[in-house]
């Protein structure tokens, strides 16, 4: 047997060796911590203390508004340093996974990958402790999850892709990252041919879908297929030439169910992406469709788990009026409008007491700005925590909408701080806001 059967190559230069059946590991190169000068942002105009926590040596993002960048202990942030922000990714370019120590005020590059996008960075996420981080890389030509052991300075390549990690850190789920760009760019891995990303055959594939990978063994299995979920849509497609793709996948906080966005694209682009939202048990059973009207057409935006694990938080307009923040039962029941007077929109998340929602809003004033919003559901009041310049908004970008920089505010695990994105000096940076005085 040739030696190459015992090694796998990552696109960023690491060599993964076979150390056990199905398990591929690599020693990480040495790294060093560097000091970061934390700087307060506009204390006179921000409602709470806001601190810039990233340096000026790159372009920084966290993963997404519903993925906590704070480590389980709260001491560290896992972030992505992108190589540029003025053009779309080029196949083969690398980005860095970095850890910021919020106590020591240092930053350390722990991994370099060719799997990244401007919207979700490297998809880096914490495991169950501060020791492990999971990201993605292109290994032997496929985008797969990589578990990083910060103490042992090792990395293990998994068989399947990672879009979200379970709360106990034992499994990851994901749709192939190579197929993400076909419905929306900036969330997966860039294709060799930017204008012609990989596609699936017409219809709903029964051999492709959400892959679940056991982190310990590294082995994957098909959890749910596109066909299994598409068959749960109660109304037939308006035409028969569409192709189904999965999108956002997310465990609830309890680790008992998974939220799944399903999209259907027609060749002429009709009906936008025809978003439908489902949930299912972690073994792939009990597939249920949540409220989404109309069924074929745009049905609301940015679904996210409610902390109770039984509802979703979502921007909807169920009464036919403006977008509202809604609490949606996962069994398809009628949404509850959380405020009839406060506009929905942005990327909302809610804390466990159900009183406070944080979300964002981007607009031109006259240059692009992002407003970080705190909404008090009990008192029906909205406050602006912070307003700062950001990168161009969607209507300015046209074809390259993926280069925008949303605020993506996300809570820490104690629901006392948030981390968000902005660009007050024209460069993507990350900020931490302490909400203790308001909550």
Give a verbal description of the structure.
The protein is mostly beta strands. Among the domains are: 8-37 and 66-199; 38-60 and 347-439, no CATH class. 2% of the residues lie in helices and 40% in strands. It contains two helices and 33 strands. It has helices spanning 226-230, 394-397, and strands spanning 7-9, 15-20, 23-27, 33-35, 39-40, 50-52, 59-61, 76-82, 95-101, 106-113, 125-126, 132-139, 142-149, 154-157, 164-165, 171-174, 209-214, 220-225, 243-251, 257-265, 276-281, 288-289, 301-305, 311-316, 324-329, 336-337, 349-350, 356-364, 368-376, 381-389, 410-411, 417-422, 429-434. A seven-stranded antiparallel beta sheet has the order 1-2-3-14-13-12-11, with no helix packed on it. A five-stranded antiparallel beta sheet has the order 4-10-9-8-7, with no helix packed on it. A five-stranded antiparallel beta sheet has the order 5-6-33-32-31, with no helix packed on it. The mean pLDDT is 93.
User: Overall 3D geometry?
Assistant: globular
Beta-sheet strand percentage? Answer: 35-45%
Average pLDDT number: 93
Main sheet makeup: 7 strands, antiparallel
Distinct helical segment count: 2
Specify the helix fraction band: under 10%
What is the β-strand count?
A: 33
Low-confidence stretches: none
The structure class reads mainly beta
Measured distance between first and last alpha carbons: 63 Å
């Amino acid at each position: 047997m040739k030696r190459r059967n015992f090694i796998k190559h990552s696109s960023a230069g690491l060599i993964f060796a076979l150390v056990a059946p199905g398990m591929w590991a690599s020693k990480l190169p040495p790294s060093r911590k560097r000091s970061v000068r934390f700087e307060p942002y506009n204390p006179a105009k921000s409602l709470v203390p806001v601190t810039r926590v990233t340096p000026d040596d790159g372009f920084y993002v966290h993963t997404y508004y519903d993925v906590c960048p704070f480590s389980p202990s709260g001491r560290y942030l896992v972030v992505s340093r992108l190589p540029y922000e003025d053009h779309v990714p080029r196949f083969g370019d690398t980005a860095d996974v970095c850890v910021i120590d919020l106590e020591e005020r240092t930053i350390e590059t722990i991994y370099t990958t060719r799997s990244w996008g401007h919207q979700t960075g490297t998809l880096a996420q914490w495991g169950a402790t501060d020791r492990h981080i999971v990201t993605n890389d292109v290994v032997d030509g496929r985008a797969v999850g990589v578990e990083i052991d910060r103490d042992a300075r090792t990395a293990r390549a998994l068989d399947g892709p990672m879009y979200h990690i379970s709360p106990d850190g034992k499994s990851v789920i994901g749709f192939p990252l190579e197929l993400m760009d076909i419905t929306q760019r900036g969330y997966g891995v860039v294709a060799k041919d930017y204008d012609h990303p990989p596609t699936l055959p017409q219809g709903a594939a029964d051999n492709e879908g959400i892959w679940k990978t056991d982190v310990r063994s590294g082995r994957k299995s098909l959890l749910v297929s596109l066909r299994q979920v598409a068959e749960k849509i109660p109304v037939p497609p308006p035409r028969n030439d569409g192709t189904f793709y999965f999108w956002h996948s997310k465990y609830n906080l309890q680790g008992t169910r998974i939220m799944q966005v399903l999209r259907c694209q027609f060749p002429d682009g009709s009906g936008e992406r025809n978003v439908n939202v489902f949930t299912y048990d972690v073994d792939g059973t009990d597939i249920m469709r949540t409220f989404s009207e109309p069924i074929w057409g745009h049905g609301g935006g940015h679904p996210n788990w409610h902390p109770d694990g039984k509802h979703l938080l979502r921007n909807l307009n169920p009464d036919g009026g403006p977008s509202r923040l809604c609490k949606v039962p996962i069994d398809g029941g009628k949404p509850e409008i959380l405020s009839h007077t406060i506009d929905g929109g942005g990327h909302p998340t809610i804390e466990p007491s159900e009183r406070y929602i944080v979300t964002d809003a981007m607009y031109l004033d006259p240059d692009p700005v992002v407003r970080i919003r705190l909404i008090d559901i009990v008192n029906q009041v909205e406050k602006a925590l912070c307003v700062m310049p950001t990168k161009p908004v969607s209507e300015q970008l046209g074809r390259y909408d993926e280069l925008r920089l949303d605020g993506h505010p996300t809570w820490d695990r104690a629901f006392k701080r948030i981390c968000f994105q902005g660009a007050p000096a024209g460069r993507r940076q990350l900020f931490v806001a302490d909400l203790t005085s308001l909550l």
